[in-house]
Amino acid sequence: MLKNVARKIFGSYADRYTKKLLPMVQEINSLEENIKKLSNEELKAKTDEFRKALENGKTEDDILTEAFAVARESSVRTMGMRHYDVQMMGAYALHKGKIAEMKTGEGKTLVATLAMYLNGISGKGAHLVTVNDYLARRDAQWMAPVYLFLGLTVGIIQHMASFRVEWDNEEELTTKIVECDRDEAYAADITYGTNNEFGFDYLRDNMKSPNEPLAQRPLHYAIVDEVDSILIDEARTPLIISGPTESGTDHYYEVNSIVKDLEPHKHYKLDEKNKSAQLIDEGINAIEAAMKIDNLFDIKYVDMLHHFNNSIKAHALYKKDVDYVVKDGEVIIVDEFTGRLQPGRRYADGMHQALEAKEGVKIESENQTLASITFQNYFRMYEKLSGMTGTALTEAHEFLSIYNLEVAVIPTHMKMIRKDNPDVIFRTVTEKLNAIADEIEEMHKEGRPVLVGTSSIEKTEIISSLLNKRKIKHEVLNAKNHEREAEIIKDAGEKGAVTIATNMAGRGTDIKLGEGVKELGGLHILGTDRHESRRIDNQLRGRAGRQGDPGSSRFYVSLEDDLMRIFGSEKISSIMEKLGMKEGESIEHPIISKSIEGAQKKVEGFHFEIRKHLLDYDNVMNQQRNVIYSLRKDIITGEATDAIITETIDNVLNNMVEVYVNATDKPDFDEFEKDIEETFGISFRFSEDRKEMQRDLNQLDKLIEDRVEERRDQFGGYFEEVIRFLYINILDNRWKENLLQMDYLRDSVGLRGYGQKDPLNEYKREAFNLFVEMMNKINYEVVKFLFHVQVQAESDVQAAQQREKLQTTEEHKDIFAEEKKEQKKKPITRDYPKVGRNDPCPCGSGKKYKKCHGQAEDGNDTEETNA
């Protein structure tokens, strides 16, 4: 009540924000007349003028009003589209690093051009992130004339391809898309692409060898389209690049054959709310009998137990045509928020293999994580981040707490006149479905187009079969026939059209009304159930009532729906019982709709906690990732090779001092000296007096420095290249091992809760120890290789390869024997004095000469590592 009173006196936050932006809008409008007088060349020259201003110390805010006016004029001249005042407000919010909430049909694609132009002028790169390849390519080519006309370059990042947009005919203002390298698309002033590709390119860049060019530049500015879908809905699934492991897949079939005979409630408990299953005594006994083992919970069966848990979830909680489809012998995930297929994406941790076993298709090998990152941590790396969507306000708290993004609600250009009816509640699904079919039939007779929104492929097919029985012509849009999406949506607003769709019809699509439809009341939205998130329902509603069009919406709910069954139908159920309702009767009341909204809020809060929990764990990983990727980048660019080597050697030496001196009451100088010789190839003797330790270490430092210079001379001009090669290979191998260890750690710490320990704190503590151990191993291996690796000239390598080739060819055996005879006659030349066979080898390996370089004099091959 107090909130309502305050709103009446002071206006809502959205009203106050809009009011604050009016002077800025008026200033842009005041420049319009003078900007219109500029020739095309003069308008284009404004970009160079802005660039010089930025170079001379001005900020984007200083040039904002004129830059917006120039970009708007470019849009008018190239596409005949002039930005409305509210669109300029939306663009300002995007530039200031906020989320612009703008209703469907308000032209968000055009709004973005103003902020993209302003932030792309500097040449640091402005990214527009979309949810799929089709939208990225469509929007880039559609809006490219605005940028190209003003002298900016445009790139497109797609799955397995990249392009630039350029003029096809500048006079006619037509464009073409030309294939280009990945780094060229990223080097453009403006780059359009998908969230997955931007994230994966970041990971790929951090897996490249020193000679490969990096695709991405430092992350400067991004606008995330459909920001709630990308930063919230998809935030529960990290991006993972993985490689195959050596473990087989037969055990999945074996486990599946046992689990398919188990029964819920008898053998295991289900928790649908948390999407988890737990074996109970009878189930454990059944598995132990089938596997002929004594104790399933023995430590040696930990992997087997994990597979059984996955298989139970696959059978009891993952539903075909809801969570996944089987297509061409593959299990393909269905995105729960958009209803679209996700080819190439796989459930992690053996879950996908469990589903493949359940469906009897070929099981792909298990993969090991090579690199991973969450969307939360990827997008937080941008210097400035913003977003736009029609539905962000319900998640404002999460955007602010996770991404530090405020939501700015932008008013509509024309007043919204869509009528949103209260929900209709039934006791059973059957009653609800019959009522839905009745309403569709009634609307169809009136000639009003109807968009029927469902939450799964399975439900689209159920509604379709009901309409077929009533001989009502309709179209079905789901992940199974998404190829026809554009064609189906194009006709969805025509007179008498009936379209049944999953949530995929709620994103990036505008349904335009056919002739005479406005007079009938516009498009009617019929929701067949409530989604777990209010945003998804609001997106569906948003398909109707665009740009001041008429329209209406209504949701049908039953007490048997998943949302009501799991999250709170008790209150509503008791009301219905008190009313003594008969079969087929329904309740339609705002109080009921509010109760449903309350259930949705519970689910949203529950999912927020899951995402926050995921982020808490990934933040630990992110700190490690930042250290490794930063070190890797420094090594590859070669900007500080000497400093890195010096630091690495210092770390190894300090670690030795800690182990052999500081950590013990009596220093173990013998082991210390042995380790120095094995690691650095240097014979060194410490004083017995501990007070002389610092002097000894200073002497050792000097010897190591001299040894480094020796190695530099031996490597010639290849020293830095060899160092990079060694460091990157060792770093990548150890990092890969660490990721596997972190996966195991993550799986195991959950059980620490039973011992009254906080799993997250345990994870942080053990992850830190693993990381320190990994860095010590990397430093030690790099130093050992640096001081012991042998160098061979390329000509020697080629000669050796040629000899090997000749030796293995029958017809050249005699020639090879003759060559060997000649070689034996030649004197052995050395770059060091003659050494006794039992003396230490001068190479510093610590071996006797006869067992090391002396082998060559005996006619044997020398063991060498080629760099």
Automatic annotation (TrEMBL):
Composition-biased stretches (Basic and acidic residues): 802-822, 828-837
Coiled coil (residue ranges): 21-60
Topology of this chain in the membrane: Peripheral membrane protein
Record GO biological process: intracellular protein transmembrane transport; protein import; protein targeting; protein transport by the Sec complex
Binding residue positions for ATP: 87, 105-109, 510
Region described as Disordered: spans on this chain: 802-867
SMART domains recorded: SecA_DEAD, SecA_PP_bind
Subcellular location as annotated: Cell inner membrane; Cytoplasm; Membrane
Alphabetical list of SUPFAM superfamilies matching this protein: Helical scaffold and wing domains of SecA, P-loop containing nucleoside triphosphate hydrolases, Pre-protein crosslinking domain of SecA
Reactions accelerated catalytically: ATP + H2O + cellular proteinSide 1 = ADP + phosphate + cellular proteinSide 2
GO CC terms of this entry: cell envelope Sec protein transport complex; cytosol; plasma membrane
Composition skew (Acidic residues), residue ranges: 858-867
Similarity comment: family membership: Belongs to the SecA family.
Free-text function comment from the UniProt entry: Part of the Sec protein translocase complex. Interacts with the SecYEG preprotein conducting channel. Has a central role in coupling the hydrolysis of ATP to the transfer of proteins into and across the cell membrane, serving as an ATP-driven molecular motor driving the stepwise translocation of polypeptide chains across the membrane.
Subunit note: Monomer and homodimer. Part of the essential Sec protein translocation apparatus which comprises SecA, SecYEG and auxiliary proteins SecDF. Other proteins may also be involved.
The protein's name: Protein translocase subunit SecA
Organism: Denitrovibrio acetiphilus (strain DSM 12809 / NBRC 114555 / N2460)
Gene transcribed to yield this protein: secA
